Amino acid sequence: MIRSHIVPQLLLKRFASEPSEHGQLRELDRADLRSAHPTTVRKACREAGYYRIEAEDLEEWAREGHDPEIAEKKLGDVEDKAAPLVADIITGKLPRTDADRLHLALFVALQMTRGCAHNGTVSGVSAPSRCCGTGPSRNCATRSPRSPTGPGRSATSPPTR
Questions:
Q1: Would residue 151 count as lying in a domain?
Q2: pLDDT in tens, 61-76
Q3: What gap in Å lies between CA 47 and CA 120, rounded to an integer?
Q4: Which domain holds residue 49?
Q5: Residues 6+ apart with CB under 8 A from 35
Q6: What is this structure's pTM?
């Protein structure tokens, strides 16, 4: 089963000790701010099968040939296209084409639908939520190991060198 990032790595890297999947962050359970522990960008804010859609959850006509990891794969496609746009914005370059602006808007809109808060809202309408009860999904608040945050904050700017 795929371990899905609830917060994309391309964003987590911006808050790490170095901008790579091996960059260090401090992860914590938002219910217990004293629970902070070191982790890497690759391991932070992820949960096995978070975006997985089981065939049993679909209408019968849609089950044949269904890929349960399709949502994770499509999110990855959006993130791959957004990564250079986000990098450009950080260096002061705005998207020049309508297609780039539209893709960036799609990426930002998708970020609003990820994670426990949205999952709980949607789950209230459909099936019980798998998120925010126990396990790594509760540990989505991160901070750089060299830049502590105050209570209630989930991340900081990159450490100064």
A1: no
A2: 999 999 999 999 999 9
A3: 15
A4: 3-143
A5: 28, 29, 139
A6: 0.69
